[in-house]
Amino acid sequence: LIGAISLCRLNEIRSIPYLHDPLKYFNENGEIAYVSLFVVAKGNSEDEIAEQLYLNAEKRALEKGCSKIVVVIYSSPIEIKILRKFGYEVEIEDAEWEIDPDMQVRCNIWSKTLSG
Fold this sequence. Notes:
Elements (H helix, E strand, L loop, with lengths): L2 E8 L21 E9 L5 H18 L4 E6 L3 H9 L3 E12 L2 E11 L3
Parallel strand pairs: 2-3
Antiparallel strand pairs: 1-2, 3-5, 4-5
Helix pairs in contact: 1-2
């Protein structure tokens, strides 16, 4: 595994809990693509792999008819660097995000309006 990104579709911008009924928020007809998983293997080309993952995610979201893509960031310097480079903006600051049944963290929700 070099890297992976997973997209889900939503109708509203929000953080999705990892464990408490995450599927209830997804909508196969939603116009917002939500990055629900992002993984990059450590190595020399880490930034390049991450950039390609995001470019492919944007392309796929457009193909699926999404008008926006959103990413929830708790702590990921590599992602923040790429999001800024690709024109994402913080849409919701200091949101609450459940990353574990007993752990809520503060996060930012970044977004980008997509155009073909």
